[in-house]
Structures are given as C-alpha cells and as structure tokens.
C-alpha cells in the first residue's frame, strides 16, 4: 500500500482574476510512510482493544543481492466479545487479519507499509484510533 503524503510539488495556476496554488502530492516507496509510524499506531490499536500484538513476517525477498526488495505481511488476531442483554451467555468471535505490504528496499519500511494497510482496513471497519 502506498500512501501519498511525502513529496509535494507546487504549481501555480493564474488567471486574470485570481491566482491559485495547486499541490501535487507524489511519493516513492521509500518516502511513502513516516519511519515507524504505522507499526507504532498498529501496536497502540491492538493494546487499546486488548488484542495480541501484531506479528510482522518477511514473506518475500526478491531481486539481486545488491538491490533486494522485501515484502512484509502483518497478522492481527482480533477478538470481539458480544454480550446479550437478555441472555447471560457471552459470545467471542476470533478473526485473523493478514495484510501484505508493497515491496521496499528496507525491511522496516516494508513492515511499515504492511502496517499502514492494516490501519486502513481497521479504520474502515471501525477500529481506528480516535483523535489521532
């Protein structure tokens, strides 16, 4: 997953009445994620929800020895408890999420990319960090 937030090129568009500045945001795989940001946020979400810590695995190494590209995956075990008001039985569901990141030249950046993908998914299913 590539996050577009790193390099900004500014270009100006001007007309007779007003001048507008447009920011074109582009990124490279090495610049796409702040260092350690995705992994730490993912750890925070897991701790806040009392889940096991995420597991990062290097699942693929490809390319020549002087230019190896690493692909990481992150595995998150989510436990959700459901308690019925009328019944004293509580249900626990266990879901395992496995997210693969894009290839990077550095292992930490590849792990961050996988974490960013997991954060995106968790945000869209309602488990994101609030006010951060």
From TrEMBL:
<protein>
    <submittedName>
        <fullName>Dicer-like protein 4-like</fullName>
    </submittedName>
</protein>
<dbReference type="Pfam" id="PF14709">
    <property type="entry name" value="DND1_DSRM"/>
</dbReference>
<feature type="compositionally biased region" description="Polar residues">
    <location>
        <begin position="15"/>
        <end position="30"/>
    </location>
</feature>
<feature type="domain" description="DRBM">
    <location>
        <begin position="38"/>
        <end position="123"/>
    </location>
</feature>
<dbReference type="InterPro" id="IPR014720">
    <property type="entry name" value="dsRBD_dom"/>
</dbReference>
<feature type="region of interest" description="Disordered">
    <location>
        <begin position="15"/>
        <end position="34"/>
    </location>
</feature>
């Amino acid at each position: 997953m590539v996050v577009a937030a790193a390099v900004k090129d500014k270009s100006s568009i001007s007309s007779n009445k007003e001048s507008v500045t447009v920011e074109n945001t582009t990124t490279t795989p090495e610049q796409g994620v702040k260092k350690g940001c995705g992994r730490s946020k993912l750890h925070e979400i897991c701790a806040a929800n009392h889940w096991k810590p995420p597991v990062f695995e290097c699942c693929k190494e490809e390319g020549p020895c002087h230019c190896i590209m690493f692909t990481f995956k992150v595995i998150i075990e989510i436990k959700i408890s459901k308690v019925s008001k009328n019944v004293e039985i509580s249900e626990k569901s266990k879901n395992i999420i496995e997210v693969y990141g894009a290839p990077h030249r550095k292992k930490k950046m590849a792990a961050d990319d996988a974490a960013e993908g997991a954060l995106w998914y968790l945000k869209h299913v309602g488990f994101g960090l609030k006010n951060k």
